[in-house]
Specification:
Helix content: under 10%
Largest sheet: 7 strands, mixed
Oligomer: single chain
Number of helices: 0
Shape: globular
Distance between the termini: 40 Å
Radius of gyration: 13 Å
Strand content: over 45%
């Protein structure tokens, strides 16, 4: 059993920044990648970013590349999503997820465990 808990969401003005955190606890594998996904109103859940176990490899979707950064601190079992220059289109529930292998992937079904999500709302 793995638990993932997101935090850091909130309401911000366009152009602002937020830093999301995802803390993992419980039974985990030592070698796992982490990903961030989001679901906007009326849309399907989509991939945002992923990071390998080592932290060396990252995969950022084009719509947020240059604005968002993913990082991790394995000693704290925590992954972060730094979001800068936020736009109203970024409004969504953001979910973190864990993949039981070290390599990155944008595919939702490659991830075994999911958090409950944290709401990010960007006002214009």
């Amino acid at each position: 059993q793995v638990q993932l808990v997101e935090s850091g969401g909130g309401l911000v003005q366009a152009g602002g920044s937020l830093r999301l955190s995802c803390a993992a606890s419980g039974r985990t594998f030592s070698n796992y990648a982490m990903g961030w996904f989001r679901q906007a109103p009326g849309k399907e859940r989509e991939f945002v970013a992923a990071i390998s176990w080592s932290g060396v490899s990252t995969y950022i979707t084009d719509s947020v590349k240059g604005r968002f950064t993913i990082s991790r601190d394995n000693a704290k079992n925590t992954v972060y999503l730094q979001m800068n220059s936020l736009k109203p289109e970024d409004t969504a529930i953001y979910y973190c997820a864990q993949r039981p292998v070290g390599a990155v992937s944008p595919r939702q079904h490659d991830y075994n465990y999911w958090g409950q999500g944290t709401q990010v709302t960007v006002s214009s």
